[in-house]
Amino acid sequence: MIQKKKIRKSNKPCPFCVKKTEPVYSDLESLAIGISVKKRIVSRWTTGVCEKHQLRLARAIKRARHLALLPMTDRA
Q1: 4 touches 40 (CB < 8 A)
Q2: First to last CA, the chain
Q3: CA torsion angle for 52, 55, 56, 58 (degrees, to 10)?
């Protein structure tokens, strides 16, 4: 018997779709949605961001880290 994968869908609306904006690396307040307390990128299921914006959010977070706008870890 082959089991099918269950696709989980978040009940939250995507905050970027609601505001009709895109995640930008220079806007640190919008990037805070996708970062945990330990400064790790949080999954779509937790944040409620759609797939398209989750990919763009992760890319923007990585750019902000590379430019030293965000820390890599929570250690000082």
Answers
A1: no
A2: 51
A3: 150
Burial of 53 (0-12, 13-18, 19+ CB in 10 A): buried
Residues in the chain: 76
User: Hey, is 35 helix, strand or coil?
Assistant: strand
Residues contacting residue 23 through CB under 8 Å, at least 6 positions apart? 16, 30, 31, 34, 53, 56, 57, 60
- Would you tell me how many other CB atoms lie within 10 Å of the CB of residue 12? 12
Query: What is the model's pTM?
Result: 0.81
Please write the tens of the pLDDT for every residue from 19-64. 999 999 999 999 999 999 999 999 998 889 999 999 999 999 999 9
Dihedral in degrees, nearest 10, Cα atoms 64, 67, 69, 72: 70
